[in-house]
# Entry
Amino acid sequence: MNKILLIFFCIAFLSCKQEPNKIQVESFENAKLEGSVFGTFYQVTYNSEVNYQKQFDSLFYVINKSMSTYQTDSDISRLNRNETVEIDAHFKNVFDASKRIFQETNGAFDPTIGALVNAWDFGSEGKIENLDSLKINNLMQSVGFDKVSIIENKVVKQPNTFIDFNAIAKGYAVDVIADFLSGKNVQNFLVNIGGELNSKGINAEKKKGWTVGVENPNFDGTQSWDKAFVLKDEAMATSGTYRKFKIDENGNRYAHIIDTKTGYPSKTNLLSISVIAKDCMTADAYATAFKTMGIEKVKAFLKLHPELKVFLIFENAEKNLENMSFNNFPE
# Structure
């Protein structure tokens, strides 16, 4: 009888010892890793005790080595110098997504506009001095993502075509980090690279969803928020024209986004475009494309794409700010 009681006591004691460990695993604080990458900041908040800094740095390195136009030895820089390069899976993923969005937006999103981006001094290369219509027309001959293809892991393009994935690669990098964390069975995280976001689950520390916001388009460089809401199991990208622009002699403001049809900076009253999609790469690319499309074309496009939730901030005829929401963008 004493032996039976002893065995029961040991089992009960072991059970009691295991239960606190289970509670501790579920209640540890969020890890928060942050730093600089791609010319901006990153912040990854996730519910785990494991430090994945080395893995994140490795992923950032590989993506930069593949697609950074700011690194002279990257694959994309070598391609733009017409060297023979065998592309990696990251390049292929971004290329395929770019081709799809290029076709869906009728060329409003076009990574081959990079030569004009540089010419207008918005890109990684030096600007063209005394830029005129003749030089712009000459550069436009090499623009058109429909002229670029991949054959046996090699990019086929015209010699003067300059490929630039900067309008989509940052969103892709957000998704790569998110996919990595999901692969490690991390159930709650928020990945933020320069304001491009991918969320999963909740903020476990606060026991509520990830609260994010849309920034007001303040031309004076100050920061304030137009709205705040919860983002869960979705991604969001915001593209603005209020921090990087040119003003002509008539006071017209031109965005740093180049119109893929004309080769000139976009004159637009759209100041901020936020897009929520299933992945950040898609949201990032559409946020860029919508800048050049204008409000009416965006409205028509979103009727055919209910999967995209969009919030626009723009200047009306009286130079006052207005906004529009589409496809149930969170209030």
About this structure: The first strand starts at residue 31 and ends at 37. DSSP finds nine helices and 15 strands in the chain. The CA atoms of residues 254 and 267 lie 5 Å apart. The mean pLDDT is 86.
